[in-house]
Write a structure and sequence with these properties.
- The termini are far apart.
- The longest helix has 26 residues.
- The chain has one domain.
- Strands 5-15-11-6-8-7 form a 6-stranded mixed sheet. Strands 1, 4, 12, 13 and 14 form a 5-stranded mixed sheet that branches.
- Helix 2 runs parallel beside helix 5 and helix 10 packs antiparallel against helix 11.
- Helices cover 37% and strands 22% of the residues.
- It is α+β, with helices and mostly antiparallel strands and 353 residues long.
- This is Major capsid protein.
Length: 353
Amino acid sequence: MELKSAFQELATDERFIQDSRDIIKNDLFYQPTDNFFTIVPGIKGGQQVAAMKGFEYITTASQGCGGAGISPSFPAFTQTWNPKLQEVKVSYCYDDFMGHFTQWALANGYAVKDIGQTELGLFLQDLIVKAMQLDLQRMVLMADADIENQDILTDEATYAQYYNTIDKGLIPTLQYLKTLPEFADKFVALDKNAATTVADQYDLGSEYALGIYEGLTDQYDFDGDVLLSSNRLFKNYTKWIKRANGYGVQSNIDDTLKGVKDASVDGEKVLPLVNYDRWRANDFTIGDPATIHLPHFALFTRKEFLQVGIDDAAALENLTFEYIGGSEETFWIKGNYMLDFKMVNPYALKAAF
């Protein structure tokens, strides 16, 4: 196989490019992001989204003719979509690209002598989709336009460009809401985040996550349907499940052998964000002794209120593949899309971080 010519042919193959766009759109915007968030296509900058807190106490015994009226207040929280352009630019020199492609082919069961343009196309799609999936979820969770001024990144020079991509992702949004008096009762203390060493931050008691989760679900203001959690907190809870009824119980033995894949608390399914802990440990470890910025979190709300706004119609229309020859042979993969995140109803949440 002549890699350069195969790449160049794919770069001008409209069917391949459109198929790649469709695969990326489906896998990036709708799976697995849609497991945790609600995708809102077609957003435009400046569009307002408002949440109103319901009111009551408007019915009284009849006062006959006349009588004073009741004028309930309308507590509301208004936000504005502000999508930012996200840009993907991946480049490899020829030798590195060939090396990665060969490794991918072997890992997927292809013989090197048999790999050709079809396999190259699958490799390109696989390469892009997996990286963009992780980037999207990371940005939606942790991005903050002001992150460079917070002294929370392991290395601002390296990581800031990957986190200042939208105004605020989920966690920075929760941090902001916590500063507003009207939402002060929406948050539960998670003291391990404030520990002074990583070891102490990770040292969770056997019922630690259980207490956090119960603190979130023990509320009567809204009907939630999703409990998101950092992975270490989730694992702490599943360990408690396995040991709660004794080691000899067959179901606990099965859970120990196979792992707890689906866990609930008070009837609410807990969904762990597996990569959250890795990103925190890698990108948000600072100080001496070292600590991790917000290594744990949990959030109880409704999935419909966790909205990822995308410009679906134009997403990835500029997806291109380029080969640039010369003394420095380079393969380029480029694309872009518009992105924003909003917690659209802060009245219906309870969080710990």
